[in-house]
């Protein structure tokens, strides 16, 4: 069991997200930075989609009541275990009674904590992910708070823990984000499309797990931005009447009535999940075949990382 | 030939669009395509989101290549031109239309429409509403087909809190709030039927393509059914009918 001593502003249990419920109006949810979640799990010997803790902007303070192995990935959050500083992206053996003390993120936005064996929580609607808006999944469908006790499924200390390490990504203050035009790119003028793929946009503080609100040059529309509501894909960039784009993330509403100028390449969503307010984003146009090629390469990279950690390749070749 | 546009929505989703306006014919094609694709059971489709006029298909491009999916969509859309003949599945939903608590906006709806309460109820219960799609909230059904006679503008200031089961009218749409939530529709009644019940095996009552027919109940009946709903002993009546021409 892990007892939460301080939970930070927003710490939730997340996994790969809920599949098969969007047609009924349930957001997909799941870890915002999937890559960081996969790697945290692989480091501690779990399936890549096992439930993890997602910590926003600030980490947790917690006490462990079992011997286990943990890994911290995602945002760079200084962490101490019984007063000793911990390396990120490394498996860490934790003995019963230890106290983990995490600070605020110094780079990136969301940190992930995986525990060997995962959490002993029941899936709800096929997932451990916390759906905050509708109180489903995770730990009683809500964010964690002080004194919560998270049960562990099969905690253990991995004998090779200290050798299980991978290099951590660097979060840039300026991001190049690949995007595929559409599905409603024809609602924008040629100039609007040109602006989208050349101007720089700034991440505003009004960003969360639902979406990243950007500010920058207005996108010129050829038609009214209101469309008859339709389904929204992860990474959709919708543009309301004010011409300022919003990138929709894991807690996005399932349907919406604004034109979507482009859709972010799925492999770049992890980078976006780590973008703090003030981050500058430029969109780079790619074609569908280019995106599929990039996806294959990304998955091969993850498979190789898994192999190096003696884990079976988790993704399709 | 079915007029269908296949629009990629990023690398792992595709939008199959049948038109840009709201109509039962277009929506039927959406429902039919979803059914046809479900029947094909293609590995690599993770889920589908039907909406008024399009179907969003989420897929794994490394399992199901885009070209193969595109071909399957076109084939399925062609196969299903007979979908209009399918029977209507109608959910009979009890609504209590009286009382300040449950129907706070009934007086303003009567004012706007110059109809009596009885006439408003008669019109509201006299239509089979098609579930065009679900969205906005878990279990929130966008119902189509409401008579223009009872169309009223949304509230100027939306309510911060609307009770679960509230039946409302907003513009020419009507619907039921499945959960307590904010909202701007005018409330004309309450149903004891829970459109979203987390603990049920099927937590969401309706799906796109179903029909809803409201019928009037008294406040006393509302209480009785509400208790049955709580015990899990109430099931709304469901009937099937041939579609109207």
Summarize the structure in words.
The complex is a heterodimer of chains A (317) and B (245). Chain A is of the alpha+beta class. Chain A has helices at residues 34-43, 190-196, 269-273, 288-308, and strands at residues 2-6, 11-14, 52-56, 61-64, 68-76, 79-81, 84-85, 92-94, 99-102, 107-115, 149-150, 174-181, 200-203, 211-215, 226-231, 236-239, 246-248, 255-264, 280-285. In chain A, a hairpin with a 7-residue loop joins strand 13 (200-203) and strand 14 (211-215). Chain B folds into two domains: 5-85, Gyrase A, domain 2; 88-241, Cyclophilin (Beta Barrel). Chain B is built from five helices and 14 strands. In chain B, the strands form four sheets. Chain B has a five-stranded mixed β-sheet with strand order 7-6-13-5-14. A four-stranded antiparallel β-sheet of chain B has the order 1-2-4-3. In chain B, a hairpin with a 2-residue loop joins strand 9 and strand 10 (173-176). The longest helix of chain B has 17 residues, at 24-40. Chain B starts with a strand and ends with a strand. The interface between A and B is large, with 43 and 45 residues.
How are the secondary structure elements laid out?
The complex is a heterodimer of chains A (about 325) and B (about 240).
Chain A: E1 2-6, E2 11-14, H1 34-43, E3 52-56, E4 61-64, E5 68-76, E6 79-81, E7 84-85, E8 92-94, E9 99-102, E10 107-115, E11 149-150, E12 174-181, H2 190-196, E13 200-203, E14 211-215, E15 226-231, E16 236-239, E17 246-248, E18 255-264, H3 269-273, E19 280-285, H4 288-308
Parallel strand pairs in A: 12-19
Antiparallel strand pairs in A: 1-4, 1-11, 2-3, 3-10, 4-9, 5-8, 5-10, 6-7, 6-9, 12-18, 13-14, 13-19, 14-17, 15-18, 16-17, 16-18
Chain B: E1 5-8, E2 13-17, H1 24-40, E3 45-50, E4 54-59, H2 66-79, E5 88-96, H3 106-113, H4 117-125, E6 129-134, E7 141-144, E8 159-162, E9 166-170, E10 173-176, E11 181-183, E12 186-190, E13 211-217, H5 219-231, E14 238-241
Parallel strand pairs in B: 5-13
Antiparallel strand pairs in B: 1-2, 2-4, 3-4, 5-14, 6-7, 6-13, 8-11, 9-10, 9-12
Helix pairs in contact in B: 1-2
